[in-house]
Design a protein that fits this description.
324 residues, alpha+beta, HIT family, subunit A, 2 domains, eleven-stranded antiparallel beta sheet
Length: 324
């Protein structure tokens, strides 16, 4: 049987890459019928890359958190790199890559339910994967994200977190990189460091803060009750985080997610890591996390024209979140 490779196809109208991945259609959806959880018993999974047990990497394969290659990956290391031009008009790309899952042991506990040391364990896994991907030389951008609940696109109820490498830098992130670079070149300052400073002084959109991180609703949110967590220390890639910052991040991460859990009765949400690409150094970029709760649905204006409508100002959203 011929292997069906994932293709990236370039949309010449929007200047965006679109992923076509037939193999992803074979993955099961366990929200309809929870019988045998594939992450509670991992014997049918691929061999884990990393085992962590109570905060430390474990060579005896005891685990509270593991990193496993996705059984239904978008990209695989074995894929052959190929660029194809169809009719001298359309462009598509086939590329090797990585698609890994970070899985926590408990079937019914999300990040917000875990103690701080276990959340630190989760962040250690992310750092290890970024270091691994950077060494590979086949990765440009890495998408690290979590889908909680069916409305957020999860196919399994057991908490798991995805790391997906890309051979390209997608348009939205490239625009962000350009904005960071242009601001730095013009002002000799980091764009996000300035945003952090303004939000701390302004306080109207501020939700939480500790020694190392600040959490706030963005000035122009893309989704209702969107939250950004940004490090105070300027670093471009997440693997540069130190142990003190990891603990601080775990605490503020848990605090924000508990607000979603308790204030909205365990709503579905996504969160993403905005990180610098791995193909070279991006000293002007500043990594951060973004949270998108699934409270309202997108209509024609949002989907067709990219114009989001919010029924509340971000200042009102932040005030509501602070009280939760």
């Amino acid at each position: 049987m011929k292997k069906e490779n994932t293709e990236l196809r370039y949309d010449i109208l929007s200047n965006e890459w679109i992923i076509i991945s037939p193999k992803r259609g074979t993955r099961p959806n366990n929200f309809q019928q929870i019988k045998d959880c594939p992450f509670c018993d991992i014997k049918d999974q691929k061999e884990p890359k990393y085992y962590f047990y109570k905060g430390r990497e474990n060579k005896e394969k005891k685990w509270t958190t593991i990193v496993i290659p996705n059984k239904f990956p978008v990209f695989e290391e074995s894929d052959i790199s190929e660029d194809i031009l169809e009719n001298n008009f359309y462009t598509k790309k086939i590329s090797p890559g990585f698609h890994d899952l970070i899985v926590t042991k408990e079937h019914d506990k999300f990040i917000s339910d875990l103690p701080v040391p276990r959340i630190e364990e989760f962040f250690t896994c992310i750092s290890k994967l970024l270091i691994e991907y950077r060494k590979s030389k086949i990765v440009k951008q890495v998408a690290i994200f979590h889908n909680r609940g069916e409305k957020a696109g999860a196919s399994q109820p057991h908490p798991h977190y995805q790391a997906l490498s890309l051979p390209i830098i997608e348009r939205e992130h490239q625009n962000e990189l350009n904005n960071f670079k242009n601001y730095y070149n013009k002002n000799n300052k980091c764009f996000h460091c300035e945003i952090n400073k303004i939000e701390k002084i302004n306080k109207k959109r501020l939700i939480a803060e500790n020694d190392d991180f600040i959490a706030f609703c963005p000035f122009a949110p893309k989704i209702l009750f969107q939250v950004i967590i940004s490090p105070k220390r300027h670093t471009s890639s997440f693997e540069e985080i130190n142990e003190k910052e990891k603990k601080s991040l775990s605490k503020i991460f848990k605090k924000i997610l508990l607000k979603y859990d308790n204030g909205f009765d365990n709503l579905d949400y996504n969160f993403f890591l905005h990180n610098s690409p791995l193909d070279k150094e991006y000293p002007y970029f500043h990594w951060y996390w973004s949270f998108s709760p699934r409270i309202n649905y997108f209509g024609g204006l949002e989907l067709g024209f990219g114009l989001e409508i919010s029924p509340m100002t971000p200042e009102e959203q932040a005030k509501t979140l602070r009280k939760m």
